Amino acid sequence: MNKLLGILDVQYPIIQGGMGNISNAILTSAVSEAGGLGTIGAGTMTPEEVESIIIETKNRTNKSFALNVALTVSPYPREMLQLAIKYKLKAVSLSAGNPSPYIGKLKEHGIKVLTVVASCKQAKKAENAGADIVVAEGYEAAGINSNLETTTFVLIPQIVDSVRIPVIAAGGIGDGRGLVAAMALGASGVQIGTRLIATSDSPFHLHYKTKIVDSKDDETIIVGRSVGRIRRVLKTPYSQYLLSKEEEGITLEQFNELTTEEKHILGAIKGNLNSGFINSGQIAGLISDLPTVKQLFQNMIKEGKNVITDIKNNLH
Amino acid sequence: MNKLLGILDVQYPIIQGGMGNISNAILTSAVSEAGGLGTIGAGTMTPEEVESIIIETKNRTNKSFALNVALTVSPYPREMLQLAIKYKLKAVSLSAGNPSPYIGKLKEHGIKVLTVVASCKQAKKAENAGADIVVAEGYEAAGINSNLETTTFVLIPQIVDSVRIPVIAAGGIGDGRGLVAAMALGASGVQIGTRLIATSDSPFHLHYKTKIVDSKDDETIIVGRSVGRIRRVLKTPYSQYLLSKEEEGITLEQFNELTTEEKHILGAIKGNLNSGFINSGQIAGLISDLPTVKQLFQNMIKEGKNVITDIKNNLH
């Protein structure tokens, strides 16, 4: 029995990635309704904005869902956690910052705490601080990532060996093969993001979804490296403009100006790929359709079961 | 039945990575004797040097082994392939360059051709040129790598979907979990390098082996990015010196001067970590012992079988 299912009260060991700022009740509720754990990513949104998404999600589903708070990104981390307590959310995932000061309070209220980590050191720290689950995110993942650049394939088994709490694999997962591979490496489940954007349920701009479906294996790029920030985005006119600005030489402050959340919303929600960016994991190249979230999960589980049979026949 | 085993005449679906220049008959024969496919990496060695390693390997084992030729690295690619034909080697792996002009001749002589690729485009090109197998190498791998930086987790399924010939996964594999994960992603087998260096059979300097065993998850670094070259090495005084020179600004020519094969041999064979470098994959952090190659393979297969049972119990 997969212990993750019991902890998170879900049918499938699949959770939604944070998607700060572009989060919405439609996709979050679709993920939870389909048997996974939907997640609202607070990003830099105000408590009022997030509260309204929580209320709308509760109107759309009776199932559990989570709130992701990127601690050093949100201007209101404490208020976000108060919202999770107020609305008795099943789980909160904490990323981009030290989760230790927040974990105790959430657990007092019966909220499960997931912490997003990119190294064994961070994972052990989270476990020691009382986290229930660690989400280990590899270099292939979409959006802001760790400068360590450790990939999912090597990160998962090392984190599994470092902690006793369940580990969820994030970064690079798009189908049943990825689900089983993550489990083979020791993960109890997977977190997916890019694959969920490319669904018929997701309310992102069609330019964003189409770009994921059309992209080949070499079409995500890293921007921000020259200023010590790693962000994985799709190759678009705007991301190539960012790279050219980096080539000329820009400061972290200038880079931040060019990658504000407004620029993110401009790309992902407004579909303007000349003046806004769109996050994407390297898995984009594998994605070629826009199923409903429910179809996606059912296909992943079905394919996953077939994969297990195939490997048994292949490994003597 | 795993078709790879028949093609390569091996007991286990595990092959040795190239290891140009530091290759030797001892490790190559140990891998083949243990049931995998040993490989001699020609690197920049002369035909005479490689011939003597082939002869010594044949004296040590009656089992099949392969020769790896990095086409744009070796000053003698044609001579190397002549050696493979002369000594009736089972297989040749071609990397770092266009394999198309060489595949036909090798196949005429009954030699199986593996091509090392890092993108779907390269994989399809190799298949069309007649390759028997593609080795798909992810960003986590040791040594010189592709600027595309596509990781093993996402590269394998995309390549598997692009070609009909068997795919071997390379980069990030160190135990039975990695073996099964690679197979879950669609690979027929795995290529390993760093894990083989850290064996009691391998004749590399103890400083090299110890450094792998002692390293944590954040101790491989990329050098050469500033000049358009990606090489994954372990964090040592010399690699940190390389990074500092890149920070100051150096040309590709200067970088090449600092990373000649003499510098490689100085680190890996002589164990001088102040004046030579040592390649390593990100998997180094997972490695904590120096088994024989035979023990390693037996453990990988045994662990792999247990992993399959565990996933079956975890995926409902």
From TrEMBL, chains A, B:
Keyword terms: Dioxygenase, Flavoprotein, FMN, Oxidoreductase
CDD domains associated with the record: NPD_like (cd04730)
GO molecular function: dioxygenase activity; nitronate monooxygenase activity
Domain of life: Bacteria
Annotated TM spans: none
PANTHER family assigned: 2-NITROPROPANE DIOXYGENASE, 2-NITROPROPANE DIOXYGENASE-LIKE PROTEIN
Role according to the record: Nitronate monooxygenase that uses molecular oxygen to catalyze the oxidative denitrification of alkyl nitronates. Acts on propionate 3-nitronate (P3N), the presumed physiological substrate. Probably functions in the detoxification of P3N, a metabolic poison produced by plants and fungi as a defense mechanism.
Protein name: Probable nitronate monooxygenase
Protein's organism: Sutcliffiella cohnii
